[in-house]
Amino acid sequence: METVSAQTDLQHEIESLPLVDTHEHLHKEDRWVGDGPDVLQDLFGNYATSDLLVAGAPPHAVERLLDSSAGDLGSRFLPVRDAWEAIRLTGYGEAVRLIAREIYGLEELTVEGLEAAQVTLTSLRRPGERLRLLREVARLDHVQIDDFEPACLPDASGLDFFLYDISWEKLASGDVTGLDVSCVDELRAVIGGVFERYGRVRSPSRRSTRTSARWRGQSARMTKRRGPWRWCWPEAT
Predict the structure, then answer these.
(1) Chain centroid offset of residue 213 CA
(2) Distance between CA 184 and CA 187 in Å, rounded?
(3) What is the distance between the alpha carbons of residues 59 and 62, in angstroms, rounded to a whole number?
(4) How far is CA 34 from the centre of its chain?
(5) Sheet of strand 140-145, all strands in order from the earlier edge strand to the far edge
(6) Using one digit for the tens of pLDDT, what is the confidence trace for 5-50?
(7) pLDDT class for 215, splitting at 50, 70, 90?
(8) d(CA 172, CA 141)
C-alpha cells in the first residue's frame, strides 16, 4: 500500500510541474483568432501526418485533411480513418489523442465528434484563450519560438510567455545586421548587441549589466573596424 501511495504522490508531483516548451513554431494570437485552424488542422497539423503516410494514407488524402477549403470535416477525415486507427498508439498518435481528449472531450475520433469539436474550437478562438490553454491546461511555463525570422515582433498576448529564438545563422550571414561575421568573437559581439538592446525591456541583473558592458566594447571595436551598422529590429522602448 505504501508503494502505491508513493507512486500516486509521485504522479501528482509530476503532473503539477510546469514544463518549458523549448522549440515551437507559433503564429501570433491575432492570426490564431482571425485566421486560425479548423479542428482537423488543429489535431493533425503536426508530425502525425508522417505516421499517416507510413500507415498507407494516400498523400492527396493527407493534403485534403489539412486543407479547410477541401470539403467538410467528414469528407476529409474518412479517407484517412483507417490509417489513423493504425497510428493512434504511436507517439504522434498519442499527442493527437491527448488534444482530442483534453481540449475537445473526445475519446474517439468520429465525424460526429469532430463536428461538435469544431463548435468548441470556434468558441476558443478568441483573445486570451490560446494563452490560457497553453499555460493552465498544458501547464507550460513558457514557450521558445523559432519564428524563422530574427526580426520578429513579440506576441503582445503574452510577452513573458511567448519567447523568441535568436537566429545565429542569420546574424552570422549579415542578413540582419548588414555586417558579415567572420569569426566567433564577432558573432559573440553581434549576439551581445541583441541582448544589450532588448535586455533593457526587463530589469537587468548585475551579471547581465557586466556582460552587456563587455558586449558593448566588442561591438564598438567591430563598428570601428568594419563601419556602422544597425539592427533591423524595431527600437526598444
Answers:
(1) 32
(2) 5
(3) 5
(4) 18
(5) 19-24, 140-145, 162-164
(6) 556 888 888 888 889 999 888 889 999 999 999 999 999 999 999 9
(7) very low
(8) 30
Name residue 87's amino acid. I
DSSP class of 78: G
Tell me the whole-structure pTM to 2 decimals: 0.71
Using DSSP, state whether 158 is helix, strand or coil: coil
96-to-17, 173, 216, 229 alpha-carbon distances in Å: 22, 38, 47, 46
Determine the number of helices (DSSP H) and then strands (DSSP E) in the chain: 13, 3
Cβ–Cβ under 8 Å, residues 144 and 21: yes
In the numeric block, the cell 533593457 is attached to: 200
Q: How many CB atoms lie within 10 A of CB 11?
A: 10
Nearest to 73, CA basis, from 102, 47, 104: 104
At 1, is the secondary structure helix, strand, or coil? Answer: coil
